[in-house]
């Protein structure tokens, strides 16, 4: 089949074949010009050749009468999206700017805004940092010839408590340094070697004094802080807990003074140079004087913290320091008996008893073995000495003792020695 435009003209009829009469029928009036009506025109099928693309595809024809969709919902969605994006961007920008982001007017500033208060100012008073900031200005570094120790201010006019072994061998004059780096001279007021407490006075007034707590109210597990200058590292603070109470310790160099402690044991890191510094509870109150460490080293110069440190209870230190300030020396609490030390027998065996002394007045005799003092179990005679010296003269304490096969009890009123 074809559309007629590319058909060839029909050949003339064969010779002798009559031509149809054009005048006999209207059908044949234009047959020679119309191949569809010429019965002699050959029929053939012509397939159109594939045409090459000469341009873009024609655009689809849109019916102009078709209904059109409204653009209002699309515009509303775009508007809401823009508002949300703008709000989120503004919020994030504000947060980064306030919290120390990188952008400022020049685009190069780092860190917090200059208008922000330092973080330390915002620490709660009962937080660790709050307690430290409260106590640290009252802690001093004590410097004597060839040695360094610690101490803490107990009065605004300059009295400082420290250890006796810190000032041992020092002259009448020494110096102290404060947490702000300032220094002042100090003089020795008095010392009590056996209790390991000494008092010095700083030549400066208007000083911040510490708050003293009650060491009798301590419990194992209470959090504590140790202040001082360990290994000459001034203004050092370490933290731990109360590990034990009334831990009896005997210390001293061979040929020197033997010191007895009924100590507060702590696992706060304490090293040489911490001696004399305060042990502080979570309320910022001093509850002990850091004095002794236990070490696996055989020499004092190589001793270091292994989590076993001991402090003189502040109730004892306060009483002794008060005696030194008021009377020039401390009163030593005694039970009126001599004990045997270094024995394998559990308890404190009495070598001799003063009949007019506290023990004798309570009925104790030489040979008796004291097994408990104020409910504390005694393992050796040194335990009795350390615990007795913890109490103030005039204190009445219950005592259990063994005489032969019998266990007895008594109440003993402790007194101060006559020296």
Portion in beta strands: 25-35%
Cα-atom Rg, whole angstroms? 52 Å
CATH topology of the largest domain: Thrombin, subunit H
What's the total count of β strands?
A: 21
- What is the fourth-level CATH superfamily of the largest domain? Trypsin-like serine proteases
Which residues form runs of ≥5 with pLDDT under 50?
1-10, 101-105
Class from helix and strand fractions: alpha+beta
CATH architecture of the largest domain: Beta Barrel
Total helical segments? 6
Summarize the main sheet.
Answer: 6 strands, antiparallel, barrel
Give helix and strand order, one letter per element, not per position. HHEEEHEEEEEEEEEEHEEEHEEHEEE
Supply the CATH class of the largest domain: Mainly Beta
Strand order of the largest sheet: 1-2-3-6-5-4
Mean pLDDT: 82
Please tell me the total number of domains: 5
Distance between the termini: 146 Å
- The residue fraction in helices comes out at 10-25%
Q: Which shape, going by the Cα principal axes? A: elongated
Tell me what the structure shows.
- The protein is an alpha+beta fold.
- The chain folds into five domains: 1-42, no CATH class; 91-122, no CATH class; 130-202, Beta Barrel (Thrombin, subunit H); 216-315, Beta Barrel (Thrombin, subunit H), CATH 2.40.10.10; 333-416, Roll (Pdz3 Domain).
- 16% of the residues lie in helices and 30% in strands.
- It contains six helices and 21 strands.
- The protein has helices at 72-98, 128-135, 164-167, 314-327, 358-361, 381-390, and strands at 139-144, 147-153, 159-162, 173-177, 183-192, 197-202, 211-212, 223-228, 236-251, 259-266, 278-281, 285-293, 309-313, 333-334, 337-339, 348-353, 369-373, 376-377, 396-403, 406-413, 415-416.
- The strands form four sheets. Strands 1-2-3-6-5-4 form a six-stranded antiparallel beta barrel.
- Strand 8 and strand 9 (236-251) form a beta hairpin.
- The longest helix is centred in the first third of the chain and has 27 residues, at 72-98.
- It starts with 71 loop residues before the first helix and ends with a strand.
- 32% of the residues are buried.
